Amino acid sequence: MEKDLQTYQKMAREIFDSLVKAVGIHVMLLVIEKAFWKTKHMYEEASLISFSEDGINLDRLEELEQEKAALVAHDFVMAIIDNSWSFNRQKDGRTVSRAATKSGRSINLERIATGIKALDDILQGGFPAGAAVLVVGCPGTGKTILAHQTMFYNAAPDSKVIYLTTLAEPQVKVMKFQQEFTYFDFSKVQNSVIYHDLGSVLRKNGPGKAISVVDELLKKHQPRLLIIDTIKTIADMIPSLTEFREFILDFSLRTATWGCTTILLGEYSEGDIEIRPESAIADGIIYLYGLEEKKKQKRFLRVLKMRGTNYAGGENFFNITENGIEVFQRLNPVVANQQYSQFGERIATGIADLDNMTNGGLPRASTTLVSGATGTGKSILALHFACAGVQAGEKAVYVTFEVNPRQIISQAPGFGMDIQRYVDSGQLYLVHVSPIELDIDEHVYRIQKTVQDTGAQRLVIDSISSFELGISDKIKYTDHIWSLTDYFKSLGVTVLLTHEMTNSWGELSQITKHGVSYVADNLIMLSYQEQGSELKSFLRVIKMRAGNHSKTQREICIDSNGLTLAKADK
């Protein structure tokens, strides 16, 4: 600490003058005030520092010993620099590293994680630090839960969070219902999680006093995160739109100056968002909404805006459980990542004659659709494919919507397949979801995660017809199937889908229902034909994008050896 007090006084004067020109006197005073309180938390002697619109005065620090005076002055000046740097970063939504790069400067965005994994993935790590985020939706959509989950995830002794309640709901009632969730931690309440009633201040003393209260809370606790529940109540209590705009601007300026990330909750519909003054001021907007269906209410989340950072757009399904909000991110396949060179490698189906018909098996990382009437052997063919992968040293995931895994395991030996040992060894994963409970948004996400977590190279979905039952929007159904298969193609996973045809005689028009066939690289059709008094089933390879294939129809035989194909007629 070689500099003397006069040097720090000169530095403070120069910083003051340059920042007044850059951001104005009002913002500059807020920056200095924050630095003052930060320094005073460390040194009681910082109370000797004074500042006003005319500048900064460190003269009274001369009352201290020279070394102590220089220490306090140094930390105060450094705090001003840090705060002004922080403010400038927050203005354009970026955190900028001080280390210059060859191109000028390196940019690293600091994040405030929500603690909801999929939401943090959507936001590329969380909310930008210092941002003001508006979380909106009609009553009952999950806004308060999202805010509390984020609050308790971030709260720590050195990372305090302030939760400001208004007249929308009493503070005691908010806490009563939130404590039912597992994320609620009583030990943090009024320690690192600070609840404060702002509504009564607004009602009795108006917005000016409310801003003063916010100021005092920021000075006292220096929070990392501040939440208002709800901003709409404050808007209703301030009748003048101009006065409300001024309140929001003043509030945002103070929180930004302190480097505090803000979450504003509001009971607004999607139509309201466009006309609300909060929307223009907010750096980010997250919209929660629900759709009523016959079986259950479905909840969705969309990021409408997030300044200074990229994010995954579109509709994302979420559930509310005892653990809080669980988001299931929609699939975003990246076609550029697909390595079509993998199509040159062929993998066995587990049925030797089918491998011969396809010139050595199915192309790796391709999608095969096996379509046929009930009882033609689709599930047995799918089991052969999964077991062939395990025998080749690969892991496989078999998703079944129609048959319980215990039933599959008990019946498989009758077709020459002992899959129990594959399950026990962790090479084959059987995943079962009842079609009655099926929610396509959630289970597309769970299938994706299961394959990723297990490192599987083969995936069977038996059958996508159950997917169709789980969704009323048939366009969305087709989009989900396409996204799912394209996603796994980019990972090099080979996918086999089964599909039930309502027509037993194998009409090709049935395969292309809702446009599902176009997602498949390979198309195999199983059908019935009457031959005299017998009803026989046959297999045909309809298409293969990656090469030639047999055009011959082969009769299917199902016995203790599983599914085999009869010799082709000459």
Describe this entry's structure for a reader:
There is one protein chain. This protein is α/β, with parallel strands linked by helices. It folds into three domains: 5-91, no CATH class; 111-328, Rossmann fold, CATH 3.40.50; 335-565, P-loop containing nucleotide triphosphate hydrolases (Rossmann fold). The protein contains 19 helices and 24 strands. The chain has a nine-stranded mixed sheet with strand order 7-6-8-9-5-10-11-12-13. A nine-stranded mixed sheet has the order 18-17-19-20-16-21-22-23-24, sandwiched between helices. Mean pLDDT is 85; it is low at 89-107.
Which sheet architecture does the biggest sheet show?
9 strands, mixed
- Beta strands, count: 24
Number of helices: 19
Determine and state the CATH class of the largest domain: Alpha Beta
Name of the CATH architecture of the largest domain? 3-Layer(aba) Sandwich
Residues in helices, as a percent range: 25-40%
Using the CA coordinates, give the radius of gyration: 32 Å
Shape: elongated
Structural class: alpha/beta
Number of domains: 3
Strand order of the largest sheet: 7-6-8-9-5-10-11-12-13
